[in-house]
């Protein structure tokens, strides 16, 4: 900030209003709002600050207020942290202890963020109570997607580049909850996308049946021409075969349609953990922990090394 770009900033801090003022291009903060916000006696702190004005960089600065211009005792923002550390939480009244600690942990950082960025970013780590919304969202994802909690939390950790859920700062928890809700919506869309078309399956069954009958007739003619004897027709229950096929289709939920250059086509069931990818996508496939298990990486590396030395 320059001397011409800023005169005064009001900074909301919990239930108090703190201030930043500019002098010679440097940020100063009035001490009375901070002392009052901590619940300390202003008279005692005034004596401490004025007893060593050089150490604390004390300056009396005129501050515009609702009541008009007032002279306020200010110190440079860079010295605020040192002053905060002179207050011992164990020596104040028990009802003020949490407030004093809160100011010591956050006050100077919030003021500095407002000075440099125009807004404050809360740097505090989240607490279990803070993470309740995230925990509920993850539980919902686990229930919907039928995955375990460790896999669900790993997706969140990878998204925010953290090793433990406790490392997600308080100001990013909302983004984490929103990310999990996005995963839930994506999963729901996948689950309801392209339901099984029974008419298409019946049409496919008719075509395949026609192809099989045609092939069997040609085979029978060729066997008779060669003087051979056709085996007895196999006996089977069409309903049982149909039920088995439908069961496999519904369980697998993935099918591959193959088109024959002569005009026919066939369906092939694909396992749920199967991935279709071209050769250019293999490096990306290996990098994805949700598709390639870590235990497989040594074998992949060994195969790559064997290929390189040939």
What's the gist of this structure?
The protein is an alpha+beta fold. It has helices at 31-38, 42-50, 53-56, 80-84, 94-117, 132-145, 149-160, 173-191, 198-225, 238-252, 282-287, 297-309, and strands at residues 8-13, 16-23, 26-30, 59-65, 68-76, 255-259, 265-269. Helices cover 51% and strands 15% of the residues.
Strand order across the largest sheet: 1-2-3-5-4
Instruction: Sketch the major β-sheet.
Output: 5 strands, antiparallel
Span of the ends, CA to CA: 62 Å
What's the CATH architecture of the largest domain?
Roll
Percent strand equals 5-15%
How many structural domains does the protein architecture include? 4
Percent helix? 40-55%
Radius of gyration, in angstroms, nearest whole number: 36 Å
Uncertain spans: 1-6
CATH topology descriptor of the largest domain:
Mlu1-box Binding Protein, DNA-binding Domain
Residue-averaged pLDDT: 78
Number of strands: 7
Structural class: alpha+beta
Shape: rod-shaped
CATH class of the largest domain: Alpha Beta
What's the SSE pattern?
A: EEEHHHEEHHHHHHHEEHH
- Total count of helical runs of at least 4 residues: 12
Report on this model:
The protein is an alpha+beta fold. It has 4 domains: 8-117, Mlu1-box Binding Protein, DNA-binding Domain (Roll), CATH 3.10.260; 132-191, no CATH class; 198-269, no CATH class; 279-309, no CATH class. 51% of the residues lie in helices and 15% in strands. It is built from 12 helices and 7 strands. The chain has helices at residues 31-38, 42-50, 53-56, 80-84, 94-117, 132-145, 149-160, 173-191, 198-225, 238-252, 282-287, 297-309; strands at residues 8-13, 16-23, 26-30, 59-65, 68-76, 255-259, 265-269. The strands form 2 sheets. A 5-stranded antiparallel sheet has the order 1-2-3-5-4. A two-stranded antiparallel ribbon has the order 6-7. Strand 1 (8-13) and strand 2 form a beta hairpin. Helix 6 (132-145) packs parallel to helix 8 (173-191). The longest helix has 28 residues, at 198-225. The protein is rod-shaped and about 120 Å long. It starts with 7 loop residues before the first strand and ends with a helix. The model is unreliable at 1-6 (pLDDT under 50).
């Amino acid at each position: 900030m320059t001397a011409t770009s800023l005169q005064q900033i009001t900074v909301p801090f919990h239930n108090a209003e703190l201030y930043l003022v500019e002098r010679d291009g440097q940020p100063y903060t009035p001490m009375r709002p901070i002392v009052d916000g901590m619940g300390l006696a202003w008279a005692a702190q005034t004596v401490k600050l004025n007893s060593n004005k050089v150490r604390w960089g004390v300056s009396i600065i005129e501050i515009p207020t609702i009541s008009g211009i007032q002279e306020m005792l200010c110190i440079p923002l860079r010295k605020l942290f040192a002053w905060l550390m002179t207050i011992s939480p164990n020596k104040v009244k028990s009802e003020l202890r949490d407030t004093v600690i809160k100011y010591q942990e956050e006050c100077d950082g919030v003021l500095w963020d407002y000075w440099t960025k125009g807004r404050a970013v809360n740097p505090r780590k989240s607490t279990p109570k803070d993470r309740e919304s995230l925990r509920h969202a993850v539980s919902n994802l686990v229930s919907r997607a039928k995955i375990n909690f460790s896999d669900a939390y790993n997706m969140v950790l990878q998204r925010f580049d953290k090793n433990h859920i406790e490392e997600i700062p308080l100001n990013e928890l909302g983004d984490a909850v929103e990310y999990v809700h996005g995963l839930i919506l994506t999963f729901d869309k996948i689950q309801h996308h392209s339901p099984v078309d029974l008419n298409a399956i019946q049409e496919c069954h008719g075509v395949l049946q026609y192809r099989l009958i045609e092939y069997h007739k040609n085979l029978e003619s060729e066997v008779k021409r060669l003087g051979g004897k056709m085996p007895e027709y196999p006996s089977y229950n069409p309903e049982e075969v149909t039920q088995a096929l439908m069961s496999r289709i519904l369980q697998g939920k993935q099918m591959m349609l193959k088109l024959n250059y002569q005009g026919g086509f066939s369906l092939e069931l694909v396992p749920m953990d199967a991935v279709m990818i071209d050769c250019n996508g293999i490096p990306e496939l290996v990098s994805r922990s949700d598709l390639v298990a870590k235990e497989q990486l040594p074998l992949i590396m060994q195969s790559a090394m064997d290929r390189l030395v040939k």
